[in-house]
UniProtKB/TrEMBL annotation, chain A:
A Pfam family matched in the record: BPD_transp_1
Membrane topology: Multi-pass membrane protein
Entry's family note: Belongs to the binding-protein-dependent transport system permease family.
Official protein name in the record: Putative spermidine/putrescine transport system permease protein
UniProt-listed GO biological process terms: transmembrane transport
UniProtKB/TrEMBL annotation, chain B:
One record GO biological process: transmembrane transport
Limits of the ABC transmembrane type-1 domain: 18-206
Membrane topology: Multi-pass membrane protein
Native species: Serpentinicella alkaliphila
Entry's localization field: Cell inner membrane; Cell membrane
Name of the molecule in the record: Putative spermidine/putrescine transport system permease protein
Keyword presence, Transmembrane: yes
Lineage start: Bacteria, Bacillati, Bacillota, Clostridia, Peptostreptococcales
InterPro entries: MetI-like, MetI-like_sf
Cellular component per GO, a single term: plasma membrane
Protein family: Belongs to the binding-protein-dependent transport system permease family.
Length: 291, 221
């Protein structure tokens, strides 16, 4: 009886997990053009070959990659900085923390609305700058939204992700700072040196995890590029959904091939991360949980 | 005024959608928290085959883009007859909330340990009572955090709901997005305000319920 307990406890999670794998597996199978419901019975790599030659698709993948990389790197740098400020000023709990948590509670769709209200050419910022005489006409305000520079999308992600990174790293950094950080300072190391040589390296596991999460999210999320992106080139998830909803059902394998490529890239990152963490365990002798 | 009419006018379905949407997300939140608690107990207290694989699998929904999963599962759900249904939407929402609830519950379960529960066993308390009287009250803060995060994930979910609900399951987020997309700032701001206020109100109610439960439990002891 005792041996069966874990399986009983895990049963609902395993069933839901199977459903999850079924969804992903189905997307993969369809990407090879095997959809019996539409009388498509061939197993072929044709769809991958075709989309990899289409400029529309190549542009999509490039755009998604750039958005994810730029927003994630900036969010990590600024988020860790914010976290360090919170730790060194002693604001690790209480009101300040509640304010940090607020952006995490607000969904991306509403963030998109904020960004439109503030950054569009007839938005708040343009009006304020015009009123202050900084702009000749409101039209001189740079187009940040619905444009190919994707600045609006990146700002929207930053607004969500900087507080997320800070919150994600906070507990670990606070505990390291009060133990090893203060020890180093007592031994005569300067604050800056302590931060870069002791605290930051020990926080790396959490920082890497945070990077993985936000990169995978901003690479594969639909809402923000759908609401703030240009007509062309569309971000990968948006382009995949366009193909999925194409009136000609034979377009579906294209959507699924795009999905598989997204899946491949995000999974490769996850596997790389776990491989890296594993190596780290041998090098520094501990993960976040051991400290 | 146009926004007030849209939200509260006599022909508006907004309020009824808001309440059914809150209900749906609460169901998702509680189920995700319960499954998260069960999974965490299994992963923390037991050793079994495939444990590493399962704990890696439990974080996958954070990494795999929702679009990939939603488009893949759509046909499966159509075949199972749960596409365009509340059941289908609840299932996919739970799947995307689970990594977070499992993570929270693992943290609190492993920090509590099982020594108190073992003590209760030794003193002759039945396992089920030991859990409900000793362990569960101590897990409450984590359980509440799980419910909150599950709620917010479900309530703000747009793409998954749109795909799986197929327009027949209308949630507040699904209703709000077309206004943001069309650039109607007045109405979409009103929606956004209602969204945030209702979320805060739900959180206050959840917290009050948990406090009441803890108090009641304490008195009973």
């Amino acid at each position: 009886m005792k041996n069966q307990t874990p399986y009983f406890l895990l049963l609902p999670m395993i069933l839901l997990g199977l459903l999850f794998l079924l969804g992903i597996g189905n997307a993969l199978v369809q990407s090879f053009g095997y959809i019996p419901a539409f009388d498509m019975m061939d197993f072929t790599l044709r769809y991958y070959e075709e989309i990899l030659q289409k400029p529309v698709f190549i542009d999509s993948i490039r755009v998604s990659f750039v958005i994810a990389l730029v927003s994630s790197v900036l969010a990590i740098v600024l988020g860790v900085l914010l976290c360090a400020v919170l730790v060194y000023t002693g604001n690790v709990r209480g009101k300040v923390l509640q304010i940090i948590k607020l952006p995490i509670l607000i969904p991306h769709t509403i963030v998109a609305l904020f960004i439109i209200t503030i950054l569009s050419q007839n938005g708040l910022l343009a009006r304020i700058m015009y009123a202050l005489g900084l702009l000749d006409t409101q039209g001189d305000f740079p187009t940040l939204l619905f444009s190919t520079n994707n600045v609006g999308i990146i700002i929207a992600y930053l607004w969500k992700e900087i507080p997320f990174v800070a919150y994600f790293v906070l507990a670990l950094m606070a505990s390291i700072n009060t133990t090893l950080g203060e020890a180093a300072e007592n031994l005569g190391a300067s604050r800056l040196k302590t931060f870069f040589y002791i605290t930051l390296p020990l926080c790396m596991p959490a920082i890497k995890k945070a990077f993985l999460i936000i990169f995978a999210f901003s690479f594969g999320a639909y809402e923000i590029p759908f609401l703030l992106g240009p007509t062309l080139p569309k971000a990968l998830p948006v382009q995949a959904y366009v193909e999925y909803m194409h009136p000609d059902l034979r377009h579906r394998p294209y959507a699924m091939a795009m999905n598989s490529i997204m899946l491949l890239i995000t999974l490769a990152m996850a596997v790389f991360y776990y491989w890296m963490v594993r190596k780290n365990i041998f090098q520094t002798g501990g993960d976040k949980d051991d400290i | 005024m146009r926004a007030v009419e849209e939200l509260f006018g006599p022909h508006s379905r907004v309020m009824s959608v808001l309440f059914s949407s809150i209900g749906l997300s609460l169901v998702v939140a509680v189920l995700a928290a319960v499954v998260g608690t069960m999974t965490a107990r299994a992963l923390v207290f037991y050793d079994f085959m495939g444990k590493k694989f399962l704990s890696f699998g439990s974080v996958l929904p954070i990494i795999v883009p929702g679009t990939v999963f939603a488009m893949g599962i759509h046909v499966v759900f159509i075949r199972m007859g749960i596409a365009d249904s509340i059941i289908g939407v609840i299932l996919v929402h739970i799947i995307y909330a689970l990594p977070y609830t499992i993570n929270i519950m693992i943290d609190i379960t492993s920090s509590l340990g099982d020594s108190l529960e073992v003590q209760a066993h030794v003193l002759g308390v039945a396992p089920r009572q030991a859990f409900s009287h000793v362990t569960f009250p101590l897990l409450l803060p984590g359980f509440m955090a799980s419910i909150s995060i599950g709620y917010i994930i479900s309530f703000s979910q747009y793409f998954l709901t749109l795909m799986i609900g197929g327009g027949s399951v209308k949630t507040f987020a699904v209703m709000m997005v077309p206004f943001i997309q069309s650039g109607d700032r007045t109405i979409s701001s009103a929606y956004a305000l209602l969204f945030v206020l209702s979320t805060l109100a739900v959180f206050v109610v959840i917290e009050a319920c948990i406090k009441k439960f803890a108090f009641w439990h304490h008195k009973k002891e």
